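Lab meeting, item 3. Inverse folding demo.
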């Protein structure tokens, strides 16, 4: 990358393209907003994809400042962060649990299935409320209500699951 040109390459072929010939740039960021990649296209439809450079923020700044004003520049943010342990669980584990629940529900009655789903929903809402604090994040004055509602959801869900055994 020089002051006048950016190097575009496909496989082993490389060519220098002036900054003014860039027609499209997609700037990719992770869930935290940190730049993780850049996808650049020239007016002749040459494409360059850069991912994982240590100086990615500087590269993004250079692209923003040197790309022509008539070029289409898009900031794209990846909302799923696969490095968090909850994301793979929600993407893989939760569907597996739902499928297992559907298989097990064939031997249960419809009322039992509805009650179990409602109980598990209450438990999940309680865990989510205590763990992520979605209400107090928006309005800190509601933190006390959230501190009461999270455990209350957990207790109600647990009681609903345990009721058939009493």
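The presenter then showed the designed sequence:
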């Amino acid at each position: 990358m020089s002051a006048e040109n950016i190097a575009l390459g496909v496989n082993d072929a490389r060519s220098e393209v002036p900054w003014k010939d860039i027609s499209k740039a997609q700037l990719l960021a992770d869930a935290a907003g940190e730049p993780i990649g850049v996808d650049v296209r020239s007016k002749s439809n040459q494409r360059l994809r850069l991912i994982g450079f240590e100086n990615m923020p500087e590269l993004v700044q250079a692209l923003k400042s040197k790309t022509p004003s008539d070029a289409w520049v898009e900031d794209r943010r990846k909302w799923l962060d696969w490095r968090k342990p909850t994301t793979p669980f929600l993407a893989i584990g939760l569907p597996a649990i739902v499928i297992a629940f559907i298989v097990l529900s064939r031997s249960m009655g419809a009322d039992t299935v509805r009650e179990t789903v409602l109980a598990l929903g209450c438990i999940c809402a309680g865990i989510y409320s205590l763990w992520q604090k979605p209400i107090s994040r928006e309005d800190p004055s509601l933190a006390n209500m959230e501190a009461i509602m999270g455990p209350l959801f957990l207790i109600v869900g647990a009681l609903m699951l345990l009721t058939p055994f009493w």
